[in-house]
Automatic annotation (TrEMBL):
It catalyses: ATP + H2O = ADP + phosphate + H(+); Couples ATP hydrolysis with the unwinding of duplex DNA by translocating in the 3'-5' direction. This is DNA 3'-5' helicase. Its EC number is 5.6.2.4. The lineage of its organism: Bacteria, Pseudomonadati, Pseudomonadota, Alphaproteobacteria, Hyphomicrobiales. Residues 14-307 form the UvrD-like helicase ATP-binding domain. One of its GO terms (cellular component) is cytosol. It comes from the Bacteria. Residues 308-571 form the UvrD-like helicase C-terminal domain. ATP binds at A35, G36, A37, G38, S39, G40, K41, T42.
Amino acid sequence: MPAAAYLEKLNPEQRLAVEHGAAGAPDGGPMLVIAGAGSGKTTTLAHRVAHLIAGGADPSRILLLTFSRRASVEMIRRVDRIVGEALGVRSREGGVSLPWAGTFHAVGARLIRDHAGAIGLDPQFTILDREDAADLMNLVRHELGLSKTHKRFPAKTTCLSIYSRVVNAGAELDRTLGESFPWCAAWKAELAALFGAYVEAKQAQNVLDYDDLLLYWAQMAAEPALAAALGERFDHVLVDEYQDTNRLQSSILLALKPDGRGLTVVGDDAQSIYSFRAATVRNILDFPGNFSPPARVVTLDRNYRSTQPILSAANAVIGEARKRFTKNLWTDRTGGARPLLVSVRDETAQASYVADTILENREAGQLLKQQAALFRASHHSAPLELELVRRNIPFVKFGGLKFLDAAHVKDILSLLRFVENPRDRVAGFRTLQLLPGVGPAFASRALDAVAASPAPIGALAEVKPAPRVAEDWALLVSVVSELADAGTGWPAEIAAARRWYDPHLERIHEDAAVRQADLAQLEQIASTYPSRQRFLTELTLDPPDATSDEAGPPTKDDDYLILSTIHSAKGQEWKSVFVLNGVDGCMPSDLAVGSSDEIEEERRLLYVAMTRAKDQLSIVLPQRFFTHQQSARGDRHVYAARTRFITTAMLDRFESVGWPAAAFEAGARKPEAQIIDLRARMKAMWR
Ligand code: ATP
Ligand code: MG
């Protein structure tokens, strides 16, 4: 076969990375592709996987780790297309299977379940999301009596953050407290006791939190008896966005592939934005030296995504970074306008500017899908969301408030989780306390009995509640047995769960009708999963994105605008990008104006946001914006200045405009109350 057409599209460096160790030597040595934004790292990874498969590698022995499920779905689609092109078939139709792809957490969950027996875990374990984990932390804290005697003890979410950082960074509690949570350092002994009890509680209840999905995987992979089942089961392990992995994740890779053969990682240190989750840029910088001989390092220097004006503005911003390994990129897309710096009066004006421009772009032929509004924190998009709803512009929001966080959705999921694993205390507590008259003390005693019994449902039936609770209790026992009975089957179970929940929903919530619509949607989502267990696991690890459409997530053919936090926009690209709130206080966030490391991370965030744009980039600067930090006068609005990352010396790379020009010049201001009112309405929208 002549050099395949898909290889000819690549530049020489990309091709080198794609073909590394492929021909005749399927287990080439370790490789690192390190390069700036839009240089084709992800493209190279997809081509490499496809090239390996086209060359005869067994797809079921290839593992592809991505940062989000969305990214893994997209990657598989690309691999499928290239393999199809190479072999002249659509791989699925041609009977060629596809590689394993997913996030570290999702792959971890699956491998742990597969090998649970070997590490003494019950494979029926359930997974706690962050909120559940914080609730369990709180339960344990109460049991230890830390809440009664220690009023100023750190909040449950802070405790969980500390615990999580210790686990993910592989650091000592002492050091973690000193470096990241100095205000909690006085509680070291109590925290250590709390974390010990938290780990015990998880084990007793057969539940795993997110961190466990990595921790158990890392420990399993390091176990010689499991090496064949884990490390040797994959010939190739490939990782995208490697700059945002943490110590625990790098230790998993090293345990899977101690000599690095078949290991490929790609990333960009200038885009490292997850240090708050213990990600460390050291992983990518230290990667080559982990192996002997050291890993092959491939760098890419051509950007295929953005026009030259966008790229040079982004290069200027990142050029001021204190430390950076990747070099500036070049592009031959020399045309195009300079990025806009758009001054607007406030966030309301920002919303109208973005909505107006998006509609103009659509008139000019750009789909909504080809445009995105990006922001630092999820709540920053609230005024824009409201404006979009008002104008009937459909949108999907990534990285925002999740559908699953709604109380009624959690109630149904807790019941299912309790059925799946009756020892899951957070789920059990939530379910039992839905019954009027059942409080924490009684629920706790009942759950103790359930957990101690080899026949949990029988034990639940034998609990003797107060007479006024007896009827509801009997109904609960009956639905739990019905769901646990394999006869009901999935997804019919969820309808049964809803029937049971209905009267509670009506009783608890005034807006029951709206919530019913959510539950109907949940039922619809459930029907796309093969089993209760897969549904619970995958939904917990990858909750659906929020959408403006009551009918649920849009289908492939719908056109909708993308709203995304910058963190969730990683790896993606759009023709037009609007960066909201490009002002000091948002970028850098006023929460980050602490250490210089934090400030540097905020600079990288802006760089990530800017480099998402292909053709058009607007950074919007509201002169006033809403902040959660109250000033001494109780004012929650601050007058903001352009982000410090765009210095005066860089201004010639941008075009500065005011919008709307007339109003801007007149300096007219809207009354403050209007913005506050918008916030309240947005909250109501999410209930
Ligand atoms: P990021 O750092 O943002 O994750 P990346 O380095 O992963 O970016 P890709 O997303 O792979 O970059 O590629 C950016 C764009 O460049 C995509 O639209 C991709 O199709 C295009 N591209 C990559 N390589 C080539 C090439 N050799 N020829 C033409 N287009 C390319
Ligand atoms: Mg990428």
